[in-house]
Design goal:
The chain is mostly beta strands. About 0% of the residues lie in helices and about 50% in strands. It is built from no helices and eleven strands. The strands form two sheets. Strands 2, 4, 5, 6, 9, 10 and 11 form a seven-stranded mixed β-sheet that branches. It is globular. The termini are far apart.
C-alpha cells in the first residue's frame, strides 16, 4: 500500500502563487509516475501535470507556462508550483502515484485550492 498526503492548498487572489506538496510513503518500483490532478465542482477530474522517476514532465495546456511540477527523490515528495493563478484554477487538487501509465495507482485525499478576490 502506498499512502499520499497533500498539503499547501488555500485561498489566494488571482495572479497569486501557491506551492502544493505531496508526501509519498514509498515507491513500489524503480520506475514510477507521479502527478497532480484536479476536480472542480460539477466537472470531471483532469490531469494537471505529471513527472516520472526519470524526470520527464507533462502538462495540461491550460497550465503550461504557469505551473511547474518537480520532485525530491530522496524525500519522496512531489511539488506543484502554481503561479499566475486564475479563478478557473479553483478545484480540489489530488496527488497520484502509479507504477506505469496504464495503472490506476494510488490517490491522496486532496487539497482545496481557491482562487478568488
Amino acid at each position: 500500500q502506498v499512502q499520499l498526503v497533500e498539503s499547501g492548498g488555500g485561498l489566494v487572489q488571482p495572479g497569486g502563487s501557491l506551492r502544493l506538496s505531496c508526501a509519498v510513503s514509498r515507491s513500489t518500483s524503480t520506475f514510477y509516475i507521479r502527478g497532480w490532478y484536479r476536480q472542480a465542482p460539477g466537472k470531471q477530474r483532469e490531469l494537471v501535470a505529471t513527472i516520472t522517476s526519470t524526470d520527464s514532465t507533462n502538462y495540461a495546456d491550460s497550465v503550461k507556462g504557469r505551473f511547474s511540477i518537480s520532485r525530491d527523490g530522496a524525500k519522496n515528495i512531489v511539488y506543484l508550483q502554481m503561479n499566475s493563478l486564475k479563478p478557473e484554477d479553483t478545484a480540489v487538487y489530488y496527488c497520484n502515484h502509479r507504477r506505469s501509465w496504464g495503472a490506476t495507482g494510488y490517490w491522496g485525499q486532496g487539497t482545496q485550492v481557491t482562487v478568488s478576490s
